[in-house]
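Dear U.,

For the methods section draft, I wanted the exact inputs and outputs in one place so we can describe them consistently. I've listed the two proteins in the order they'll appear in the manuscript figures. Please don't edit the token lines directly; just add comments below if something needs changing.

First protein:
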Amino acid sequence: GMLIRAPAGEKIPPADPRATAANEALRRVLRFEFAALERDFELYGRRAGTEWTLSLVPRTEAQRRTIGRITVSGEAAAIRRIELRRSAKQVIEILIAPPRPPAAFTAEEIKAYFR
């Protein structure tokens, strides 16, 4: 959720149906729910070895204006890049790097910062 804080107080903005549609599509992408995605999108894919790309094109004009085309790419079972493209000038790109090894903490840092 989102909360707007101002000198006059806090308020929750009205729900944005565009954000809801994009969030639902991304949730389905991250869960690899292809049957659910196919209802709202035409799916196109390409695979080369373990690398793959999946493009989702909205079936309706309203969805094309709201969400745009979604392109997801990755390797094996890992998603590495998500692109939401509404136009040539409106693009959101999400890059997902492989996990890094955990940081080493000293005993004093653990005591000071972790409870």
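Second protein (the one for the lower panel):
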Amino acid sequence: MYQTGTAVEVLGNACIAAIIAQVIKFVYFYIAHKKINFKIFTTTGGMPSSHSAGVIALSMTVGYNEGLNSIPFAIALGYAFVVMYDAAGSRRSAGKIAATMNRVMEEFYAHRPTAAGDKLKELLGHTPFEVFMGAILGIVVSYVIHFLILQ
């Protein structure tokens, strides 16, 4: 079942950390806007980064099981850094481009708004702070599950 030192623990901790991050986003949205938005659970972007939380929880769980000086931990951490860099870099830039394109389309089609089509999704990536907070969440979740719950 769910026990320390298994692939289930590694993947489970990653999924749990990502889900907790999405729940935090949902609660934060509710507090900020005073309305419930279930789409938060299936969207990217926002605080904290669920991608960062998931990949760091996965990496740290590998490190706890294999050793923080092991090759599997180094591979997992390298993977995590690529994902986090992408979240704060490429996907964030794509979101900024989408916001600019949406404004251009609104101005270009001001006389015929329906001709512009659907808006592009703007919240794609994360700020470096959102990525960092997701990473902290991933560390905490993996530590609590591995050392306090499963041991």
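Candidate sentences for the figure legend, describing the second protein: Helices lie at 7-33, 50-66, 71-88, 90-108, 128-149. The longest helix spans residues 7-33.

Thanks,
Y.
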